[in-house]
Design brief:
Number of domains: 1
Protein name: Organic solvent ABC transporter
Keywords: Signal
Strand order of the largest sheet: 1-2-3-4-5-6
Structural class: alpha+beta
Pfam family, one: MlaC
Organism: Stenotrophomonas nitritireducens
Strand content: 15-25%
């Protein structure tokens, strides 16, 4: 159960601006400091996405294109997809054209959506999302917002969001679940293919499905 939870959470990071936004209603901890603008971005999005998934569940099941459109909208709204893609590309993205980076970012997000998107509609119960605090990132890179995913009968799962200010709007560029970064996870996965192929070629294979973005073990029955 825990493996499947974390797989879905991690996959959702690229789909819905943050991994647990589609899985948990935000609930600030009573003892935590008042959330900043960055933290409120995460907390507000979680409530908005949860509400939409609950009220539009039947529509989304009947019309996967509507679910994809909703996820794309949330992704553009709260996730710094192209910057995160550059971090995933690492040395392979040095000097790469913005258009190629965007091509890779979009292909990876679409690949994840095709593989894991339906799991967003299979959420059972009502997990809660507890705000713990935040800290500045080194080098004035932004802030880290610390939270816990709380589920009945389970130990709280630490989830941290790395965010930066983009033109006056706070956006997420990495998510760490129990200390595991999704950026680093995909950076490790795509290092070998990018040593052999161009960014465009890898993006094309992701788009065609001949290469898969792996957020962990595929959900059972998928």
């Amino acid at each position: 159960m825990k493996t499947r939870l974390l797989t879905t959470v991690l996959a959702s990071a690229l789909l819905a601006a943050a991994p647990t936004l589609a899985m948990a209603q935000a609930r600030p901890a009573a003892t935590a400091a008042q959330p900043s603008a960055a933290a409120r971005t995460v907390l507000d999005a979680s409530s908005r996405i949860l509400s939409a998934l609950e009220t539009r569940r039947a529509e989304f099941r009947a019309n996967p294109a509507a679910l994809r459109g909703f996820i794309d909208s949330e992704l553009s709204r709260g996730f710094d997809r192209d910057y995160a893609a550059r971090l995933v590309l690492g040395v392979h993205g040095r000097g790469a054209a913005d258009a190629d980076v965007k091509l890779f970012a979009d292909a990876m997000a679409d690949n994840l959506m095709a593989r894991y998107g339906s799991t967003l509609l299979d959420i059972q119960g009502k997990p809660s999302f507890r705000y713990k605090g935040e800290a500045a990132l080194p080098g004035n890179r932004g802030v880290k917002v610390s939270t816990e995913l709380v589920r009945a009968g389970s130990e709280p799962t630490p989830v941290e969001y790395l965010m930066r200010d983009v033109g006056g709007q706070w956006k997420i560029f990495d998510v760490m679940i129990e200390g595991i970064s999704y950026v680093q996870t995909f950076k490790n996965q795509f290092d070998a293919p990018l040593r052999q192929k161009s960014i465009k070629d890898v993006a094309a294979e992701l788009r065609s499905g001949s290469m898969q973005a792996n957020a962990g073990p595929a959900p059972r029955g998928k």
